[in-house]
Design brief:
single chain, alpha+beta, twelve-stranded mixed beta sheet, two-stranded antiparallel sheet, globular
Length: 354
């Protein structure tokens, strides 16, 4: 395509800077594509929210733009953990009217090439789809599937990616009926050895070490099937620094609920919601984890109910909460379904050896 250009976008310092216009356009294109993939605009992030993540020093991200006649019609990103030399995550998003013209191939070549040149051994890409009709490509885990004839499925297979896992995307409509009574019942079930704590923004000093430890465990305890997902080590220093950075650069707020095991004095579970500044927008469930050693006490349900109650108290009016879970993670899916979460889309986790 003679009028197609592919170029890396220098990341702007802010979306309001003169060089921020292309970044804003790229995020708008990405949101439009993902709204079709997920079947809802609820997962859209504003450009200033996205820019904060691009400047994460522990997982820096780079972006390439595809222009046709000078207009941005697609983008691709690549990122990896600063302390890991094996895995890269890649995305490739092209507006529907510009597909099947080689644009996706050109973008994918760019980001995969950068990952390969940086010595990464494999690339992981997450691709969403809606609907259950037609022939399906099953996950090798035995749980979940993706549409075999979907354009993104054919594209991933043609580029040498292998489907490793399927995640369920679920939505909980707010508000939740009977929340106070359900939370009280969950607290009674978990028993007197556990106590809930909660906060918005920075982690209280007494919980920093334990909160960082749980973040690390999240990277290795959550089901990852055949994906070569690296351990993401969080130290107390990293947690403090990252919370200060996001407080300064992102308009989103993080609402955290933790469970303390009173006999040991340590945190054993954590749940985080990410709140956009507008209450008209959906809330994202960032993580919920109970340490393996403390499962079986209903702490996952306790964490989620406590965070929903906190949300209703501190920031009422949001329409929904969106969460992602591996289809083989039946305990967490059971919890979500009991809360009222309903499936809205599937997301295939694809991996390619570079």
């Amino acid at each position: 395509m003679s009028n197609l250009t592919i170029e890396e976008l220098p990341l702007p310092a802010s979306v309001d800077s003169p060089e921020g216009a292309d970044f804003v356009r790229a995020i708008e294109v990405g949101n439009a594509v993902e709204a079709l993939s997920f079947g809802t605009p609820d997962l859209a992030y504003a450009p200033d929210e996205e820019l904060s993540d691009f400047h994460n020093p522990h997982q820096p991200r780079r972006m390439w733009l595809a222009r046709v006649d000078g207009v941005v019609v697609g983008s691709a990103t690549v990122d990896w953990l600063r302390d890991d030399d094996a895995t890269a995550w890649v995305t490739c998003l092209v507006l529907p009217d510009f597909r099947r013209r080689g644009i996706g191939t050109a973008l994918a070549d760019a980001v995969e090439g950068v990952a390969r040149e940086a010595g990464r051994r494999n690339a992981i890409s997450y691709v969403a789809s809606v609907g259950q009709d037609g022939d399906r490509l099953p996950s090798p885990t035995g749980f979940g599937s993706v549409p075999r004839e979907h354009g993104d499925t054919r594209f991933a297979l043609a580029r040498g990616f292998k489907l490793e896992q399927v995640e369920r995307v679920s939505r909980l409509a707010l508000p939740v009926d009977g929340l106070a009574d359900r939370l009280a019942a969950a607290e009674e079930r978990s028993g007197p050895d556990y106590r809930v704590h909660r906060w918005i923004g920075r982690t209280p000093e007494r919980f920093i070490d334990d909160a960082a430890f749980i973040n690390t465990r999240m990277s290795i305890d959550a089901p990852t099937a055949g994906l070569d997902e690296p351990e993401d080590v969080w130290t107390a220093e990293r947690l403090v620094t990252e919370e200060l950075r996001t407080e300064r650069t992102s308009p989103r707020r993080r609402m955290t609920v933790v469970v303390e095991h009173l006999p040991s004095g340590h945190l054993v579970g954590k749940s985080v919601l990410s709140l956009p500044p507008q209450t008209s927008r959906a809330v994202q469930q960032y993580m919920t984890l109970v340490l393996r050693e403390y499962r079986g006490h209903g702490l996952g349900m306790l964490l989620k109910l406590a965070n929903l109650a906190y949300l209703e108290e501190a920031s009422p009016g949001h329409p929904s909460v969106i969460t992602f879970n591996a289809e083989e993670n039946r305990p967490m899916l059971d919890t979500n379904e009991a809360l009222g979460f309903v499936p809205i889309a599937s997301e295939g986790a694809w991996q390619k050896v570079l």
